[in-house]
Amino acid sequence: MASNGNDPKPPVECVLVTGGAGYVGSHTVVKLLEGGYDVVVVDNMSNCTQNEKTSQPESLLRAQALTGRRLTFYGVDINDEAALDAVFKKASFTTHSVDCVLHFAALKSVSESCQIPMTYYRNNVAGTLALVKVMTDNNVKRAVYSSSSTVYGTPQCLPLDEGHPTGQGCTNPYGKSKFMVEEMFKDLCSADKCWRVISLRYFNPVGAHESGRLGEDPLDTPNNLMPYVAQVAVGRRPKLRVYGDDYPTSDGTGVRDYIHIDDLAEGHLRALERMFSAGLDGFRPYNLGTGKGHSVLEVVQAFSEACGKKIPYEIAPRREGDIAASYCDASLAKRDLGWAAKKDLKEMCKFL
What we know:
Elements lengths: L13 E5 L4 H12 L3 E5 L15 H10 L4 E3 L6 H14 L5 E4 L6 H6 L1 H21 L4 E7 L24 H19 L4 E7 L1 E3 L18 H9 L6 E4 L11 E2 L1 E3 H15 L6 E7 L5 E2 H12 L5 E4 L8 E2 L4 H7 L7 H6 L2
Helix pairs in contact: 1-2, 1-8, 3-5, 5-6, 7-9
């Protein structure tokens, strides 16, 4: 365990991170390593670049280089219960028992989920069931879950707070899968009082590590706005497709609550600290967002100013599963976790 002079020792020793080689997972791994945690990552590498020499995820190699600390990696799919169980048991022998799981592993495209819904349910829902089974077998009953604002469905009011109904009017299988997993965790915590789960409902993560060595660069066509804009800016794609300009918003394009990836990763550390503090039990959801909505065209303009280059775009039909606007009230996370987003849209566009 690394030490930072007189800094207090982290409240837990070993954190297992599912999907830790992905965009949000890898940035959170950097924070965990910087915080002195022992980190074990499992990832099936379906959405990351492998290093040619080591066959390890490039994102995790860079996370270790950035922090000067080592982690343990296993190329395991969470649906493979036997392989996942072996990881928990190996962690017990090589370092010490896993204390908490940060669960990121999931497919995450709204539009793709409408095309292949069963794949999303198999990976996101059945995969979590397999993970919970293995955690229970190994007496690990603490988890921080990577959820989504899509559990709120079509907003009945804005801004969205944690009291807003979930599961009503979910517009796509991705959001439904996240809602189903939250319901599973609620039932689990109700049935077994030893379980503690914090569900972090993300809004729209964007940006990159300040070093420029970690960020979001999808292997296929980007499903999220920022990486698509970035690929247009560098000439990899001729123009941005803006899906819909007839929404009831200020300029007709969809409005979202964009949050910098560094702020989001920091939210996981605050949740992890809260997990092991006194008085926490059961299932607790928290919104992670800035509380401000920006339209697609506002983001395009901000990115154009950041890179000094006009971003060409064309208007396309609405995508199935999209909604007009979504932004949050994150005051509960500030009160309970001591967390609040710090970076604005300009800073989000600075590094991609």
